[in-house]
Amino acid sequence: MTAEARRDTHDVQTYRVRSYECGPDGRVLFSHLCNYLQETASVHAQKLGFSKKNFEPMGLTWVLTRMRVRLDAYPAWGEDVVVLTYPRSMRKLTAYRDFVLSRPDGAPMGVATSEWMVMDINSRRAGRLPELVGACANNVRPPVWEGEAFGRLEFPEAEDAIALKFAVQHSHIDLNRHVNNVRYLEWMMECAPEAGSGSRVADMEVVFRGEARHGDVVVARCAPSRDGARMHQVATEDGRELITARTRWMRLD
Q: In CATH, what class is 151-253?
């Protein structure tokens, strides 16, 4: 590979943990770390020329379809989180973006990888990715995930599943006129037995399957899996699945 062909396309954003982003233990909530990831991706896409604003004249918008996050530490109120991101690769209908989270001194905090598609704003169907997306893929940095990050996720038939209902409010709707994907993560966490126990998510894999809009009522469910993880599902009352996820938890000192 020639020097001219090398593309270390990346961006770095730093976030200071605010008090309103923390739980009772003074550490940032998982959902807000995911917000940092999405904001960093959006800022970088804007710089590269393929953000939501760039796609709007074409009648397209970005949607997140899969995400995997692994965390080794949770920063506390007032601490800084450095998020590095880069577009990793592209297929015909999907684009992949990686993230590295660290402290300002470089101490690692975690990694994440994500899969994205573009959606036709009117038909709500998947669209073909513009060639510019693939042309900006980083070909210098390796994938953050060793092996396959995404697997098959199915919510089990479980009589002992914990279930909670949530009504979709105006404040849950994002720029794409549907429920923001981080909101689904907040709903599914509410059902986990570990929630509020001092434990935090160490590993999460999620697939986004559908859209919820204002006025919908959704049901979040959580059940144990055979390998000791937690399985999660958020679906509409009539059974239309919106997300499926798997989490593993860790105790914080």
A: alpha beta
